[in-house]
Amino acid sequence: MTKKRTWSAFAGAALLLAGCEFTDDALIPSLTGEDPAGDERIEIPASTAEGNRLPTFGDSIFEPAGVTPGQPTGTEVGKRVERLRDDLGRLQVSVSNDNDALQTLRQQTITDALRYQELIAQIQAKLQVGTTPGNPNLVAAWTEAQTILQRIADSVGQMNALSNKVANDSALSAFILESVRATYGLTGAVDEDHRQLAVLEDETNRTVVLIDRLLNELNEDIARQTNYVSRERADLTVLSVAVKNGELFGSSLANRAFATAAPARGPVGTLANRRPLVVIRFDRPNVPYKEPLFSAMSEALNRRPGSTFDVVSIVPQRGTPAQVALNANQARRNAEEVVQSLVEFGLPSDRISMNSTSSGQVANNEVHIYVR
User: Fold this and answer.
1) For 76-245, which CATH class?
2) Which CATH code, of 1.10.3470, 2.30.29, 3.30.70, 3.30.1330, is assigned to 3-50+251-371?
3) What pLDDT digit, counting tens, does each position of 103-115 carry?
4) What distance in Å separates the CA atoms of residue 113 and residue 367, rounded to the nearest whole number?
5) Which of 22-26, 35-39, 133-137 has the highest mean pLDDT?
6) Confidence (pTM)
7) How many angstroms separate the CA atoms of 168 and 91, rounded?
8) DSSP labels for 219-253?
9) Strand locations in the chain (E)
């Protein structure tokens, strides 16, 4: 899904998005502090983590076929076969209950996820057309979405408990099968005992296979649902920032960098030959940099998920020593604010380093972000 963003003019020098030094074309078109011409739009490709927004589950039904009744033979072996048949019957009842519990959890989770996605879509639609920062209706919708997502997360715990129960059933089924096979070696059996044993062995085998399939599919469901909850929690955190600011961002940066570990960071080194991905000029209060910053970082991580970022505060070398010192303190606070925004967007903190330098080429405090 391709996202389009339109940004209104920024009064004063607010933000410059420069090309990043990748092997292909410049990463992002420039957006200067001057008024953009017309309805300039920047295409933001969808993250590889985006796509199906509902948790996926297996669709198998695990209902045992039942146990074939037998006739008493009057032998000790026949009595043992009857006991084993009763054990298998109780096991199959347990498996049937496990299946009912799994299907209920699957259906409830899908129902919750549909409501959750409906709320998210409503919030994003309102943010897309514009709204006030901290809109109470959006806050209420976000709170409900968070509650539902927590309920989906709780169902993962229920599935884990169910998985433990199915694992116990699996161990019991293996024990019953071993006991059935051992019964063939007992003396004093008649032909009917062995005929009934063969039937019982086949049905126990099928139950063992059914339980193994149930356990495997249940564990796959748990893994997929755990990933879903983790991804949605990251996106929900970013959405809370968007609601607070009254502007739409997108999916969490964590979901764009999820597949690659951050490489080891070295010193920043000289900046002379490095082109910044983002330049934020703090030439006035409340510079509106968050939305374009989010888009620039998203694009960088789409291109190279393993990227790390250097956030560098640039202090102008102008004025008295006292003024330079004050500017340095303010520049550091600006850089800390930018880093906090990146963390809120979902970028792992171990992907970010913060440094500072001074320059006689800038008129105001600036924060530059470089890609490594």
Assistant:
1) mainly alpha
2) 3.30.1330
3) 999 999 999 999 9
4) 40
5) 133-137
6) 0.64
7) 10
8) HHHHHHHHHHHHHHHHHHHHHHHHHHHTS---S-G
9) 3-6, 15-17, 41-44, 278-281, 309-316, 352-359, 366-371
